[in-house]
Description:
2 domains, transmembrane helix, single chain, 59% helix, elongated, 5-stranded antiparallel beta sheet, membrane, alpha+beta
Amino acid sequence: xxxxxxxxxxxxxxxxxxxxxxxxxxxxxxxxxxxxxxxxxxxxxxxxxxxxxxxxxxxxxxxxxxxxxxxxxxxxxxxxxxxxxxxxxxxxxxxxxxxxxxxxxxxxxxxxxxxxxxxxxxxxxxxxxxxxxxxxxxxxxxxxxxxxxxxxxxxxxxxxxxxxxxxxxxxxxxxxxxxxxxxxxxxxxxxxxxxxxxxxxxxxxxxxxxxxxxxxxxxxxxxxxxxxxxxxxxxxxxxxxxxxxxxxxxxxxxxxxxxxxxxxxxxxxxxxxxxxxxxxxxxxxxxxxxxxxxxxxxxxxxxxxxxxxxxxxxxxxxxxxxxxx
Length: 325
């Protein structure tokens, strides 16, 4: 939701259509579902079995001779379905959606951002770029151009030009500037460059032009970990997360029915509270384990799967405890 709100805030400034916003929301869904499928499964199990427990149906079923394991069989089928679905999101649809999202955002900003450049108004539609023009004789021609370029934090540039033209390119935008100066400041060094023609290119995107880890498939993550040893840890952590997140559905097969019975007759609110608490604790410890890996205190395999193993053992323990009652 944070990413969607950030994209909507930026894209609304360039006159994005409702259809484009709908496409962006659609492309975000696979990555969101990686997180929400296990959560939805746990909440559904807690609410369903909690209601059965509230209505004393669990007592009737067990009194008729059904074991707790038999009562939990529907959750096994649901867990396997959710696991396969979440795995497909994690391995294929999530990376595809991320790629389509970046391409669509770049396309929108490339085609519509020039329309937001108005006379006498500072334009900040481009990341780390501020553009001011004195006049705009036509949609693609400018005069009296002033540009502040802060994409390189250690090197700031100010570009002034008498006139220029907007040149849209694939996933990027360029300004063909004429008769101007480039002022460069780097620490204590100041450079003044005069030019007759200057091609100023930028990527009008809220995301980096480089593919993000979320856009890489698991095989690409493994290949990248070998190709870039200095970034090996972050690629491997992302790879293990792609496996561990769907695998939570298998743990919920044991955890969901057990928690619903242990919660007693707390109703829907109790099941919702328990479900959200479980995921809040799980994600907190997951991030903690990953941070330990990044700091070099744990091997990546231990840090990535430590929380999963602990939750799995806890789920197995309470499932057997409830089953023996």
